[in-house]
Amino acid sequence: MVLTHVPTLRGARVRGEQRCHNRPMDLVAFLFDFILHVDRHLEVFVQTYGAWVYALLFLVVFVETGLVVMPFLPGDSLLFVVGALCGAGLMDLRLAMGLLFLAAVLGDQLNYSIGRFFGPKVFRWEQSRFFNRRAFDQAHRFYERYGGITIVLARFMPFIRTFAPFVAGVAEMTRSRFTLYNLIGAGLWVGGLTLAGDLFGNLEWVRENLSTIIWAMILVPGVLALVGGWRSSRRANA
Question: What transmembrane ranges does the database entry give (predicted)?
Fold first, then answer.
């Protein structure tokens, strides 16, 4: 009896190990699919869990804007799809916009606070492998001069919107100034994209080309940011 169960137990153990090894890849595949087909996933979530979708949305936006290690979450496309679901009558527009605005503001405030907390600790290293005093001084001057518009525009740029508040904190941008532009940027970002989804998200052409629109929301702002950074570095070198 014992011998006959050995292959079965061994096979179960091997299958278990394979599942453990595949979990990171499965998670990556799920995240990639969620980003590209956020409309389908959200619609299924609303139909399955109802009002819990508001808690999920608050968490996603708060984590994307509040934790510098989570820049890949689908902020722009998520807001647009939420607006489309509101336009279809599956969600409440005012409640969704209010919670998403709050999540965006609190997330940036947390991100700024983390940068502000670690900044003074890093500043003790006058020059090291991980810290360049000259680079910090340049960042500080930049945020004092252009920090407001940077915080607002960064809202519409994937990845950059996650790092901009953190860098603002590290560069010691004043909290009152940061908070003002944080509120403005969050209002324009959440209000603009959610209302756009509410107005246009249920048009037949938009629904048929939503995957292309999502890709455009991800790639176009990223390319513009890269071009802007390249031009800025060329001017700085000149």
Answer: 51-73, 80-106, 146-168, 180-200, 212-230
